[in-house]
UniProtKB/TrEMBL annotation:
Gene3D superfamilies named in the record: EF-hand, Thyroglobulin type-1
Classification via Pfam families: SPARC_Ca_bdg, Thyroglobulin_1
Species in which this protein is naturally found: Anopheles culicifacies
Keyword annotations of the record: Calcium, Disulfide bond, Glycoprotein, Repeat, Secreted
Cellular-component GO terms for this entry: extracellular space
InterPro entries, per the entry: Dev_reg/Prot_inhib, EF-hand-dom_pair, EF_Hand_1_Ca_BS, EF_hand_dom, SPARC/Testican_Ca-bd-dom, Thyroglobulin_1, Thyroglobulin_1_sf
Location of the Thyroglobulin type-1 domain: 112-173
Name of the protein: Thyroglobulin type-1 domain-containing protein
Disulfide bonds: 115-134, 145-152
UniProt cross-references to SMART domains, sorted A to Z: EFh (SM00054), TY (SM00211)
Recorded GO MF terms: calcium ion binding
Main location (coarse class): secreted
PANTHER family in UniProt: SECRETED MODULAR CALCIUM-BINDING PROTEIN (PTHR12352), SPARC_OSTEONECTIN, CWCV AND KAZAL LIKE DOMAINS PROTEOGLYCAN 1 (PTHR12352:SF25)
Amino acid sequence: MKSSECKPQQLTAIGNRLLDWFSVIMADSKKRRQHQQQKNKVHFPAACKLEARWMFGHLDLNNDGELSTQELYDLEHDQNERCIKPFIDTCDLDQDNTIDPREWCRCFEKTDRPCAAVRRRLGNDLSGSYAPDCDSQGFYKPTQCHQAVGVCWCVDEHGVEFANTRTRGKPNCGKYSLCFLMNNASKKHNASNNVEDCSQ
C-alpha cells in the first residue's frame, strides 16, 4: 500500500499507536529483564522519545545503526494495521531503503503518547464529555474522572482501567500512583531499565 492510500490522519494515528506499542513492549522487556546488547553506540537526536530509541535498538538486529527493509519487514507487514508500511516509508527521508536514527526519531517527533493523542483527537469541545487527565509526558494520570457524572477510576499510564476501582468520588489510586511516579522519573532520566509493572 502506498502512503497516498492512507489519509494523513490515519498516518498520524498509526504513529501514535506505534509509539504506545513501543512503550508497552519496552516495559514488558524490562519486566522480563531482557536487555539489548548493542555493539555499536547509536547516536540519537536529544529530543528523540525514549520508546522510539528503545525500539530502534530492538529492531536493529545486526547492530549497524540502521534499519534495513529486512529488519522492518515484520513490523511493516502487520495484517491488522494496513497503514504501518506507508507510515514507515515516510520515515526514509533520503529514500535509500534504510532508516537511520535521525530519520527514525524525526518520524516519531510529532506523535503523541496515548493520553495526549486522545486529548488532541477530542479537540476543545468537551462539554459533558469525558476528557482524560494527562501527565506532562502525555501518559494517563492514575486517577481519571468523568466530571459530568461524578465517577472516577484508576488506570495505568496507557489508560487501561484497573478492575473494581470505579466509584463515585475519587478512588484511592495511591498504590498505583507511587509506581507511576517512579516510572515517570525513570523515563525522564532515560533510565528505562528501572521501569516497573504497576498492575500488581
